[in-house]
Amino acid sequence: MSGRTFRPSRRTVLTAAGAAGLMCATEGVAVAGGDGTERALSIGRSSRVQLTLPRPDGRLPVGTMSLQLIDHSRPDPWTSPARRELMVSLWYPAQHTRGFRRAAWLPPAATALYRQQVSAGLHTSLDAVDFPVTHAYENAPARAGLRGYPVVLFSPAYRTPRALGTALVEDLASRGFVVVTVDHTHEASMVEFPGGRLELSRQPASPTEQDISTALDVRRRDVRFVLRELARLASGGNPDAENRRLPPGLRSSLDLSRVGVFGHSLGGDTAAEAMAQNPWIAAGANLDGSFSGTVAATGLDRPFLLMSNAGHGRDNDPSWALFWSHLRGWRLNLRLRESGHQTFTDQSPLVQQLEAALPIPPQVVAALTEAVGTIDADRAVAAERAYLGAFFDLHLRHRDHHLLSQPSRRYPEIEFIP
Fold first, then answer.
1. What is the pTM of this model?
2. What Å distances lie between residue 18 and 23, 215, 367, 379, CA to CA?
3. Three-state secondary structure along 213-262?
4. Residue pair 397/178 in contact by the 8 Å Cβ criterion
5. What CATH number does the domain containing 412 carry?
6. Contacts of 45 (CB under 8 A, 6+ apart)
7. Is the torsion defined by CA of 280, 284, 289, 292 positive or negative?
8. Which domain, by its residues, includes 320?
9. Which run of H or E residues covers position 191?
10. Could you tell me the pLDDT band of residue 373, with boundaries at 50, 70 and 90?
11. What's the pLDDT score for residue 144?
């Protein structure tokens, strides 16, 4: 698990998989942000540790709901002839949140398994740790917009559940985007379906280049299917496999004429490939993922953002250099100082919080620090949110915050790479 030295795509996804193996439950352990946020660590009379997620920085309250989607036209590549089945979550600006409860980070069965796995990975009991809830409210009515809100898809890292992007996803929704997070079933470490059914990863512990190529191809098809189901939703249908009731106003909140995509690690590669295959996707971002598909050589003609950790870039990742040279539209390359590969996930605040709260063995702490870097988690999250939000604001809403044109004194952690 190295956040300092990067090689092409297989190294990148193995880095993500290694961190997930060590902190397999960290996607359920979130942390507080900086000024104005909840404090991450709360020990009450019962000596329990309450972990919290960073509070979104946007002004809008956030609603969320999950959909079970079944692609009847496609067999699952790992369980054929069963049909391909996905879980996705929609995060959207809410009209109000009165009478609705905050959504859990992970559903119950996944939380129980996750607790076991992270305890083993950290060599520390989590019996006194309470996992967080999100800042989004389950099934809250969607806020009305003049033409709906831009839609952004999120794809997580290899073998990583969609929950690990919550800190960034919630924030985008609070800024006026509808964000759709995708679990890539049987690649993600765990996916919980309605009724508590868990589908676990069927990927090898040490994937080959072919394994990664197969996973990327499946992800491309997943994204295209999800886009098709979103169009069905926006046109009045209900794509949920169990026909569960949709939040009021959700359909009209989707503006599918303004679509973006981003992802972390292999999810960033997925974002670029999705843009290459779907010309109506207007903008994309890759958070620290190498490129293993054909898009590195063919490039894109639409806006794309590259953001890397402190030890990764075009100077030591040939796939980034190749991709950059074939970008024909607006492009920007940023680097987050003192960061590691997992700094772009919820693991960054999680690790710092857990280290402060629990007796984690020094060798595990060293490995975790290598994964998330030494940057303060609050500052990292704030910078990632600011630049990701400014990017999608500029290219999906034509609102220029002038943050993307030159370095900012507000965010000295961000380095512009010419």
1. 0.91
2. 9, 17, 10, 25
3. HHHHHHHHHHHHHHHHHHHHHHCCCCCCCCCCCCCCCCHHHEEEEEEEEE
4. no
5. 3.40.50.1820
6. none
7. positive
8. 9-416
9. strand 190-193
10. very high
11. 84
